[in-house]
Design brief:
The chain is of the alpha/beta class and 265 residues long. The protein has eight helices and nine strands. 42% of the residues lie in helices and 16% in strands. Strands 3-2-1-4-5-6-9 form a seven-stranded parallel β-sheet, with helices on both faces.
Amino acid sequence: MNAVFPRRRRPGQAPVTPKTTNLLLLGGSSEIALAIARHLALGSPVRPFLLGRDPQRLAQALELLESAGCLDGDSALLDADDLTSHAGTVAGAFERAGGFDVVVLAIGVLGGQAGLDADIDESLEVMRVNFLDCGSLLLHALRELRKQGAGTMVLLSTVAAERPRASNPVYGAAKAGLDALAHGLADATAGTGVRVLVVRPGFVTTRMTEGLKPAPLATSAEEVAEATVRALSGNAHTVWVPGRLRAIFALLRHLPRALYRRLPL
């Protein structure tokens, strides 16, 4: 079960009805996840299924997607912090929807920017949500995709996963762990019909970053969504948004630590 993206029709060729893409959003009110759903719907019918913790926001998100051209969708509650509920909730969504072509994992918290001086409870929350909670959901979703023998798992990561910064080491380290897990699981599921696509945007102007000074090469949820949907029709395993960040971090990754720590990152 793979998402089908319509090809340009040749003159005289009979029109082909595009296949409906069943789409699961883990973090169903995420601005980037919803933008991905909208951009997918520009090319083929999309039936969304949203999992999240706030029923009101899920209902509003479904209305938004349906008004943007998606088919009537469905939703269910998901408490990312309740690890014992993950298996049943994810499996239940797959059963109710009849399987999914694309699953997007878009759960995360940014936390404070104070490094070692950040509130310890806040730092622990950042590590728990961004690695443990998301890692659990990633495992369960991939197991369901492998069970059905096809599908694409999209993980919304960050460029901070490439090399954590001194200004926000907890967030970067947690995301680095999740990013590494996704890439390892991509290799582990090779040949099963399942694909893992890791999306690494830079600073994205969303609710999560509201009030923060945008970093150089800042991007938007729409730009991340456009790049993600474009990558879904190809074979890439990692997508950088904007694309120039790939070359920049190829350099930053290898800078000596004594030099890297002096950069205003």
